[in-house]
Every structure is written in C-alpha cells, then in structure tokens.
Design a protein that fits this description.
It contains 10 helices and 7 strands. Helix 3 crosses helix 5.
Length: about 260
C-alpha cells in the first residue's frame, strides 16, 4: 500500500497554529488534503499529529474531511511516522508536511512512479534543492523507515524523519529528482507571516483546483512583484536548529563516556 502521511501540529514555533490558519474560508490543512486528493497513485492519506491536547483541533478538523488520523509523539516525529505506517500497514510512505498547502499532486505522482519502477530505498526532490520550497516530497520504503527508527539517535534524525537515511547514504539507495532548472529561490511553503500573505494571494489569484507548479510559475511571470513578499526568508530554519541540538547531544554523550571511564 502507498500511503501519504502528512505531519501536522499546532505547536509551530515560528508561526503558531499555522496549519489551521485560513487561506480563504478554508485553513492551510484543508488545501494540503484537497491537493493530495488529486493524486492518482496514493492509496491512503493519513494526517499524523501529536497526542497533545492542543492538537485535538487537528483531529476534529480532519474527521470533518473524512481522512484518517494517527496520533503519536510530539518530538520524536520519526517514531510517529513509524508507528503510523505500522498501524495502517503502509509499504511505501509518501512524506508531506502540513505547511505546504500548494503541494502539487502531479509532482507527487511523478515521484511515486519513479520510486515504484526502481529499487530505491528513498526518493526525494528536496535533498539537493532545485524545486521551490513548498513542493517537497519524500518517498521511502517501510523497511528503510524501520532501519532509521531502530538506529537513529541524533535529535535531528528523530525530529525530521529522514536525515538518518541521508547521513548513512552508503547503506541506502537514494535518488534525488531535480527540476529542469534550479528554481529553489522561490517559496510557497508557510513558515512565517509573510509566507502566509503570499500563499493567500496565490490562492485568491489562481481559480483552478488543484493548483499546480506551472500555474504558480505562470502567475510569477505575470506578477513577479508578488514573490518579493517573502524572498528573504532563511531556508530550513527548523533543521538548522536541530543540527545545533545534535552538537549539544553529542557533547553530552562524550562527557558521559568520559565520566564513566
């Protein structure tokens, strides 16, 4: 079974509650789900949120959209994915984050085709960046997820699900899909207030559904000033923060070893 697991939580540090903020009369999470419902190769969509009370609102909203919900660890997102995939018997996991309301279902399907027609352990369009921020897809086998879940110890590897695979790329067959040209300077993910402003404008100006990457690029060519709104955002802030936590964790482990010698 090919299952799309969407990680979602209220407790975002940079823009709290962002997945439930409205883009029009509907919140960000609504768009994530509606875009992905247009995928032809996804068998099941599941929203994986946390067991925290604040995330009851996510479970309740997802129920209104008749989509499955899984609740797991708030910090150990790798464990949340593993337990979710196990519970729903998912063989091939498509990882999507809930701050990407304009995720392109045709990109998702294209990557799934590449994954299932080859013997990859992990396939992504975000390891080497050429696609815009907001179009990230990661696909990996349950076996690879289980190996990561069993062996990953660094905070970044537990929080961001896939770094263990990339950090041990000699042990996994990983393939990175690249866009015909590098347009990773564009972003329509939502991390900050100005990101939300831009995505609201995109949603209001593009009337067709689902909204695809070419629709947004076409809008960009006609109204390039729109993309000045959030062009100075620092990419991957959350992951960079986790890497600093890794340093502290490794120092702590080293100190513990020295104390026991």
């Amino acid at each position: 079974m090919i299952g799309c697991i969407i990680q979602a939580r209220i407790g975002s540090t940079r823009l709290p509650g962002k997945v439930m903020l409205n883009l029009d009369e509907n919140p960000v999470l609504y768009y994530v789900l509606e875009q992905l419902r247009s995928c032809k190769l996804v068998d099941k969509i599941i929203v994986a949120t946390t067991t925290l009370d604040e995330d009851d609102v996510i479970e309740n909203f997802v129920a209104t959209m008749k989509v499955d919900v899984f609740r797991g660890s708030s910090n150990d997102v790798l464990d949340r994915y593993y337990q979710c995939a196990k519970e729903f018997s998912i063989d091939t996991i498509v990882r999507i984050t809930a701050d990407n309301p304009l995720i392109d279902p045709t990109i998702v399907d294209d990557l799934i085709k590449k994954f299932i027609s080859n013997s990859y352990d992990c396939l992504t369009n975000a390891y080497v960046r050429t696609f815009p921020y907001g179009t990230e897809v990661e696909i990996f086998s349950f076996e690879s997820l289980e190996k990561a879940w069993t062996n990953a110890i660094k905070p970044s590897e537990r929080e961001h699900v896939t770094p263990y695979l990339y950090n041990n790329s000699d042990n996994f067959k990983i393939f990175n899909v690249e866009y015909p040209k590098n347009i990773s300077n564009f972003r329509w993910t939502i991390d900050h207030e100005n990101d939300l402003t831009l995505v609201k404008l995109i949603v209001s100006k593009i009337k067709k559904r689902p909204i695809l990457i070419n629709d947004i690029l076409d809008l960009l060519s006609k109204e390039p000033e729109l993309f000045e709104i959030n062009k100075n955002q620092i990419p991957n802030e959350g992951y960079q923060k986790s890497l600093k936590e890794d340093e502290e964790y490794l120092k702590s482990r080293k100190k513990d070893r020295e104390n026991h010698e």
